[in-house]
Amino acid sequence: MLTKRLPSGERTLTILDRVDLSVEAGEFLAILGPSGSGKSTMLALMAGLDRPSDGRVLYDGREIQSLSEDDLAIWRRQNVGFVFQSFQLLANMTAIENAMLPLELQGAGDARARAAELLGAVGLQERAHHYPAQLSGGEQQRVAVARAFAGSPALLLADEPTGNLDGVTGRAVLDVIQQLRFERTTVILVTHDPAVAALADRRIHLRDGRIEREEWRTP
Ligand code: ADP
Ligand code: MG
């Protein structure tokens, strides 16, 4: 059970309130909820980017918040891919250089070839040498998806990855996420979009920092 509190002036805000969640390897989970309900906070806790006020985050039985900052960074690099809403591509690097980053951090020898392959998979082989500013929003988002998958993460965390995109482009980004899922890649995706959430195995609805409702995809 996770709780996250933050000081706010004289008072304490409870951002997440005793949230209890376990996710199976290979599951595709969607997190829904109104703005401010705690979705991004939950993702940050699962990535070890933030620490809970109470409770534990376990990954393969390992308590991630008890890792040192260095070990946490190594754990993240080896296990986790992110897709942020705001892309967070590096502006002075081309698409392929952005996609290569996690591979280079892992010390992979074939970073360029693997990044090229992933850019091909998201339909951007022709754009590999373009800088983010030369790409549309949907293209930038696809580079972000390619980068997130580059390190072959066991866990993909995506915070409203289709949030800035129109319906068709958003759907294309989602298709790419689904196509690139390796066997047993776990996907946890925050979204506002019911059509996106409908593709998930399970949907949880957050409200005011609590899980209000949980639904499974009907077969
Ligand atoms: P969501 O992603 O569902 O929109 P967030 O997890 O970003 O929600 O935020 C949940 C609540 O916590 C919001 O009310 C937000 O204002 C508050 N919050 C998040 N981060 C901070 C922070 N660093 N300081 C103060 N309040 C925060
Ligand atoms: Mg958010």
What is the beta-strand fraction? 15-25%
> For the report, how would you describe the main beta sheet?
6 strands, mixed
Shape: globular
Low-confidence stretches: none
* Amount of helix: 25-40%
User: What structural category do the secondary elements indicate?
Assistant: alpha/beta
Q: Taking all residues together, what is the mean pLDDT?
A: 91
Q: What secondary-structure arrangement, pairings included, does this model have?
A:
Layout: E1 2-8, E2 11-19, E3 28-32, H1 39-46, E4 58-59, E5 62-63, H2 69-79, E6 80-83, H3 95-105, H4 111-121, H5 137-150, E7 155-159, H6 167-180, E8 186-190, H7 194-197, E9 202-207, E10 210-216
Parallel strand pairs: 3-8, 3-9, 6-7, 7-8
Antiparallel strand pairs: 1-2, 4-5, 9-10
Helix pairs in contact: 3-4, 3-5, 4-5, 5-6
The structure holds adenosine-5'-diphosphate (ADP) and magnesium ion (MG).
Residues 39-40, 159 line the site of magnesium ion.
Description:
The relative contact order is 0.20. Strand 9 and strand 10 (210-216) form a beta hairpin. The strands form three sheets. Strands 6-7-8-3-9-10 form a six-stranded mixed β-sheet, with helices on both faces. The model has no long low-confidence stretch (mean pLDDT 91). The two termini are 29 Å apart. The protein has helices at residues 39-46, 69-79, 95-105, 111-121, 137-150, 167-180, 194-197, and strands at 2-8, 11-19, 28-32, 58-59, 62-63, 80-83, 155-159, 186-190, 202-207, 210-216. The chain has 219 residues and is α/β, with parallel strands linked by helices. Magnesium ion (MG) is lined by residues 39-40, 159.
